[in-house]
Amino acid sequence: MDFIAILSIFVLACFVGYYVVWSVTPALHTPLMSVTNAISSVIIVGALVASAEAGSATAKWLGLAAVVMASVNIFGGFAVTERMLAMYKKKEKK
Amino acid sequence: NPWVGLAYLVAGVLFILALRGLSHPTTSRAGNRYGMAGMLIAVVTTLVTHDLASLPEILVAIGIGGVIGFVIARRIKMTDMPQLVAAFHSLVGLAAVLVGWAAYLNPEAFSILLPSGAINPVSRLELGLGIAIGAITFSGSVIAFLKLAGKMSGAPILLPARHLINLGTLAAILGLTGWFMTDQAIWIIATITVLAFVIGFLLIIPIGGADMPVVVSMLNSYSGWAAAAMGFTLGNTAMIVTGALVGSSGAILSYIMCRAMNRSFISVIAGGFGAEASAAGG
């Protein structure tokens, strides 16, 4: 894809990120951090490409190692966020 | 294939909804679900649109990581949450470094090879920056984890002339990245990687105590920028959008947290400026 098109997407997404979190409730700082952490594991897409393609065995194993790390993060990150949010819900009911 | 781009767009929108949802207690759980859905779409789209030379290995890798992540998430004590998030960040950082190296070693797979047989210079710039940010995220998060887990003294460690050392190392990384654009020798990218590991360590050791949550949030932001840099290399909009979202929202969240503690954002990030100022003031 042409570089300027990609750059435009990048800059606009930066602004979205900027505006979306301004109003976050202080109690949700940690869950927000853990969900953005889980989301940043989208790096798994790059890891999958690296491990899927034939060509370089080293690149493939580096890719697979990265897939393992990103998966720990995806499953761990979303699950731990779910746990934290469940806790807040209980607190509200009291 | 336009469907691929559309699927990544849907994933990007779901990630925006996830961040938005997490801003309010009433929508927070829906937000987390949006995030899961977005990740599922991104992963499945990538898997079905690439020639998979090694699907069993990939599924095993996802399985191993998934089980480890899930078990940790279930067993961790709520009080250990900050160090867990720091540990998770270090994985994203290291994954970014590995993906960058894989792209360098197998540029054809990432479509960044020029007909001349060289790697596209713009891609080399993105690789250099992506690997550097990933390495900083990794070593910085490891230090943050060790400090928060009490496995290392939480007190700031102040090296003499540390600002000079940090600036020098950063300048060297940027200079080498520029050089890497003209010469794709392996020693340049290897030196960038090593220097970035060192600077991540140096940036976090002078920070301690109450500033640690801000550091964790800032490292979160770095992991986003690393993912975005890799997204540029791959020309993958899902990675760019997500990386930019995480990068900018993480930076804003760190700023909000600093403001809540009445601390200067710059002094926390630069590491130890604040310690000096409060020592002088007190």
From TrEMBL, chain A:
Domain NAD(P) transhydrogenase alpha subunit C-terminal: 7-90
Keyword set includes RNA-binding: no
EC number: 7.1.1.1
Source taxon at top rank: Bacteria
Keywords: Cell inner membrane, Cell membrane, Membrane, NAD, NADP, Translocase, Transmembrane, Transmembrane helix
Transmembrane segments: 6-25, 32-49, 61-81
Cited InterPro entries: NADP_transhyd_a_C
Bilayer topology annotation: Multi-pass membrane protein
Subcellular localization(s) per the UniProt record: Cell inner membrane
Record-linked Pfam families: PNTB_4TM
Catalytic activity: NAD(+) + NADPH + H(+)(in) = NADH + NADP(+) + H(+)(out)
Function, in words: The transhydrogenation between NADH and NADP is coupled to respiration and ATP hydrolysis and functions as a proton pump across the membrane.
Protein name as catalogued: proton-translocating NAD(P)(+) transhydrogenase
The species this protein was found in: Alteraurantiacibacter palmitatis
Taxonomic lineage from the root: Bacteria, Pseudomonadati, Pseudomonadota, Alphaproteobacteria, Sphingomonadales
